[in-house]
Amino acid sequence: MPKDTSIRSVLIIGSGPIIIGQACEFDYSGSQAALSLKEEGIEVSIINSNPATIMTDKVIGDHVYLWPLTVDSIEQILQERKIDAVLPTMGGQTALNLCIEASERGIWDKYGVRVIGVDVAAIEKTENREAFRQLMVDIGVGVATSKIANSFLEGKEAAQEIGYPLVIRPSYTLGGFGGGFVHKKEEFDQALKRGLEASPTHEVLVEQAVLGWKEYELELLRDSNDNVIIICSIENFDPMGIHTGDSITVAPAMTLSDRCYQDMRNQAIKMMRAIGNFAGGCNVQFSVNPDNDEIIAIEINPRVSRSSALASKATGYPIAKIAAKLAIGYNLDELENQITKTTSAYFEPTLDYVIVKVPRWNFDKFKGANTELGLQMKSVGEVMAIGRTFIEAIQKACQSLEIGRAGLGADGKHNRNVEEIMNGLEHASWNRLFLIKDAMSMGVPLESIRKVTRIDKWFLSQIHELVQLETELKRYSLNNVPKDFLLTLKQKGFSDVQISYLLGNVTEDEVYERRKALGIRRVYKMVDTCAAEFAAQTPYYYSTFEEENESIPSDKKKVIVLGSGPNRIGQGIEFDYSCVHGLLAAKETGFEAIMVNCNPETVSTDFNMADKLYFEPVFWEHVREIIELENPIGVIVQLGGQTALKMAEKLHEKGIKIIGTSYNDMDVAEDRGRFSDLLKELEIPYPKYGVAENAEEAIVVANEVGYPVLVRPSYVLGGQGMSIVINDEDLEKAVVKLLGDLPGNRVLIDHFLDRAEETESDSICDGEDVHIVGLMEHIEPAGIHSGDSSAVLPPFSLSEKVMNDMETYSKKIAKALNVIGLLNIQFAVKDEKVYVIEANPRASRTVPFIAKAYDVPYINIAAKVMLGVNKLKDFTIERKLEGYAIKEPVFSFYKFPEVTKELGPEMKSTGEAIRFIKDTEDPYFRKLVKDKSMYLSK
Questions:
Q1: Percent of the chain with pLDDT over 70
Q2: pTM flag (> 0.90)
Q3: Is residue 716 scored above 70 in pLDDT?
Q4: Cα(216)–Cα(261) distance, rounded to whole angstroms?
Q5: Distance between CA 261 and CA 251 in Å, rounded?
Q6: Are 386 and 397 in contact (CB under 8 A)?
Q7: Tell me, what DSSP letter sits at residue 744?
Q8: Given 335, 374, 376, 423, which residue has the most CB atoms within 10 angstroms?
Q9: Cβ atoms of residues 934 and 745 within 8 Å
Q10: CA 601, CA 606: separation in Å to the nearest integer?
């Protein structure tokens, strides 16, 4: 049936600030859904409290409400605006829970709002563990033996009846929060108490634990005619027992028999039909007994999930976009296939490549955390890689992770301690994949590894093949490696860095030149969703080593934007927001905009956001060959955080133009010695400092500048490795640890201004004029990382003199650094004197916040300035903020209850929210003022 014309306006509920378990994959889905509805002439309103995402930008929604995600906020929107329908399936668990609460309070009925994309009854059936279990029994779908418990006594009785090992699953929680395995009776009481407390309804499911079984997911779409298609099958590399968000996943499923797959399909369709009569998307998780192919259902989510974003990028099938159109009445056969443009959306994608997703963790930010993986998700982001084979894709994924690895091993970072390796295989953590390879390299039998890890033998055999290839390569020197063998290595995902390491005494560039001379070059294949059965129209590519190159460069003026890689603490969604605006600005000004990124959760990797998308690691070898193919006028590194900035030196060395601020000027800002010399020349105050290369030098410097001192490495983001110390003994420990974690780095030692206020400025410079984007005042004092501080815009208690000094210093530094584009400066203020702490000539965490607060597209303006097509005088900038805007950091400490929540110079927040305050009499604001006074008097 065609579109429901009675739906003229839709409210989309977002997911709020980024937390562990609910990241920017929901902002991607929400953004895609909003654009899809706008295509149909529907007015789109969005409620979301996250300022860092493109979803809360006016390029996405007609009306954006940066309000707290509460039922009261929703009711206020409904009073203000005529809303016909609400779409709650794009905002994760937060949106679904809010939808249920609003329904229970009668809000939807009161204002005549329809819930589309799902029905409330379906949410209830899937989120209530007992209701879900009973429904599965009724429709003949297998489930693990389980019992519901609403009290301690009921839980104990259930455990006695089912037997150990058990799993406890709280109802209505996200990311496995509050859940866990219980292997023996002595552990049960504590686990049950935790689960009951975690559930908002004080309800848990006590369930048989199917540890070691294989885990699979299917992504489904259904229309109002009850047509159902399976978009993607996803297999977990890790067996049951590790949260799917913390598992390496592979698409399509690699080790699933056809009979088992068909059975799983039928069960998934039956499950989706049983939970309610709605049109939209659904994610179903199954477990399969590896001994007999017995299938049991784990859960069903009647919404887009983390895996939906992955499946969309994996197949090229825009799940959220199509789901939004199904929600307003269209059927699948009435919609166009977004890839081929000639067939309908009523088809199931076919892949002739392999997708691998590898999670990214930040345990280094949570000292003392339990790093063992289990039912509770702990990863902060993920990367996706595309290859012709599983092993090529997993090597590319390892190169994408931003943990200093050149692939899966063969880079000098192996572990040789057998005891540590075997313990790591048994107790999975962030490095288990690398430990598997290390164990094989040391001769541990494959079957022994399988027994300990319970990972399918097929995956282990693939990794073992890498070990064999490495052994064979060591027989050669660079000049006598056979061409066919070198080609095989590249097809198996080996980077030039890995090959140079294995050959010894050979550089990456020499390997690159050798294979180029042999004609071994990277080619690019199109992601077409139909294994080339139909011609694809979408410029969405991945690399491999074959004959035919499907990415044909145009003769247009091109700009490449380097993305920020996986989300992590210190580098999150705000940089993707910046990259998207960079792409839009380039397109608006007549350039062909090319995106390079490997994060499946983000809008920048949506295939219709750039003119051309390369879903590739932001890793030098890959970036280099894309540049050689496309021959752009330059590369934008200023918008992709530290990931992109780290490329600047290589680009500069190779004579590739960096658009915006030059490499040398960026390096002056990064190099504390050179930067302090510049400040001295400009007569701008800064804390006394020194640079050391070892602990002995550090102690000399610290005694010269005076304790307390701030110790930190050069060239890092998010305060990595920073600490404040007060004596020689603590300093020595800090320096030794820092150099151990970041070998080859230099240590910066600054006199720490105790009890100083911290402030920030963001500005744009076009080489002549400087526009101050915003001045912010922090609530927390200097010494707390700016990303973990509440920041108020504009300042509320700084004197006129202090603000004038901040503006004057910002303009002086911008011009002295020859900034073209963005500049963020952090200050410490003590006794009315303003000191410069650091300057970052790039997109910062705070610019999206300021842009949303003032309602000014600052990144778009900065990008056009960087591209040289506009000067600041070309723009009329009108700020619309009444009162104050507050950036509130959000933490995920609940995932690590054993970790201290104390904040310091190293950033720990996972996201942020925005709050608007009309005046200083607001109770919340008055509390902030009181907090600030308390902090500074400590």
A1: 96
A2: yes
A3: no
A4: 10
A5: 13
A6: no
A7: T
A8: 376
A9: no
A10: 9
Instruction: Please give the backbone phi and psi of residue 593, each rounded to the nearest 5 degrees, phi first.
Output: -100, 120
**CA distances, 335 to each of 7, 36, 262, 339 (Å):** 18, 12, 26, 12
Highest mean pLDDT (candidates 118-122, 137-141, 317-321): 137-141
CB 271 within 8 A of CB 475: no
CA distances from 224 to 323, 330, 909, 919, 922 (A): 11, 8, 42, 49, 48
Measured from the Cβ of residue 718, the count of other Cβ atoms closer than 10 Å reads 24
Residue 235, beta-bridge partner list: 216, 250
Distance linking the first and last C-alpha atoms of the chain: 67
Q: Which residue has the higher pLDDT, 509 or 123?
A: 509
User: Residue 333 in 3-state DSSP?
Assistant: helix
Q: Which residues pair with 689 in a beta bridge?
A: 750
Of 639, 650, 545, 643, residue with least CA distance to 593: 639
Helix axes 446-453, 457-473, angle to 10 degrees: 140
pLDDT at 477 > cutoff 90: yes
Task: Kindly report, residue by residue over 385-421, the tens digit of the pLDDT.
Answer: 999 999 999 999 999 999 999 999 999 999 999 999 9
In tens, the pLDDT along 894-915 reads 888 888 888 888 899 999 999 9
549 with 534: CB under 8 angstroms?
A: no
- For the chain, the maximum distance between any two Cα atoms, rounded to a whole number of angstroms, is 78
Residue position matching structure tokens 């900065």 = 862
- Report whether pLDDT(140) > 70: yes
Residue 715 has a pLDDT of 59
pLDDT reading at 825 higher than 80: yes
**Rounded (10°) CA dihedral 46, 51, 53, 56:** 20
CA dist 460 and 448 (Å) reads: 11
Residues forming beta bridges with residue 562, ordered by sequence position: 596
